[in-house]
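so i finally got all the pieces together for this one. its two components total, 345 residues if u count the protein bits. some of the lines might not be protein, just check the labels. i wanna see the whole assembly predicted at once instead of chain by chain like last time, that was a mess tbh
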Amino acid sequence: MTGLRYVYAVCRPLEAPLQAQLTGVAGAPAKPLAHHGLIAVVSEVPEQDFAEEPLRAHLEDLDWLAATARAHQGVIDALTVVTTPLPLRLATVFRDDSGVRSMIEAREDHIRRTLDRLEGRVEWGVKVYFENVESERAGQSAEPAPRPASGRDYLRRRRQESRAHEDQWQRAEAFATALHGKLSAFAEDTRLHPPQNAALTGAAGRNVLNAAYLVPRAHSEEFVELVDRTKDDSPGMRVELTGPWAAYSFAGDTPPEETPEETPEETPDEAPGGEEAEGRA
Amino acid sequence: MTVVERREIALVDLLDRLLAGGVVITGDVTLRIADVDLVRIDLNALISSVNANVPSPFEALEEQ
């Protein structure tokens, strides 16, 4: 059986060794592969699961996706202890070591630039939920609402609730905007992820802000304190902090506003390893 | 209230980063994950599995 190469991250040469038993996505150990003064962290994965077709099928299997994502994160987590990794997107797979080396060669400058930009930084995730604390008070009656006696009762109650919701919604938006402004001013960079669906997270309340902040590791404590201080500012709002993460959300290409003149008219070629680099190695 | 969620990293938080973040490199074997499509597929699967356990409020009403 042939093994493919799953790449987790690229980083600068490690000053401390990777932990000995660092298990990757398919149970195989993750190891450094050095090339051109950079390190790709790689593990062997079976072709039967990670070739294009089976991978595509697996990615729609949530249990498989969850296990793979957690294993990927486990490797990245271990790396962040010893270095600042440039995390790759889930399921970046090469045929063999020489494919990984070609990738490093083709993207060397870009990788180095990004590593410089991220050096010593971590990502913090901040989510704001607004919880429906006032819905019970929203009705005219002070008593707990009985079951609706009729469809009309039900609709009337819904209308009252939706008015109350609108007020809360505006408050939530104002709260989230203010918090995001405050945290953005502190952070070096920010990314907004789409709000999470409550049905997915099982979290109480509605997610109104799902943001990532790039913060120097040395300033992390201050950042966490900044978040903590805002938590009780506003009733009905819940703030959740996750992290520190490797800088996943900031590992992509530099934001377009920083290099507007370089953006080509056509779809940007996201595979610089493709045409130009081929055949000249 | 959030104790349960914080026991381990929530899968959605992880997927926000692993499927939409990270450097996108075309491997020589495999697909580059088409982020939007993939996330939509997976989240839909998640939603439908979650929804199976959460009856819509309208069902209760219709029964009356």
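Helices of chain A lie at 47-50, 52-58, 62-82, 97-118, 135-138, 151-186, 198-201, 220-230.
The CA atoms of residues 36 and 59 of chain A lie 32 Å apart.
anyway lmk what u think
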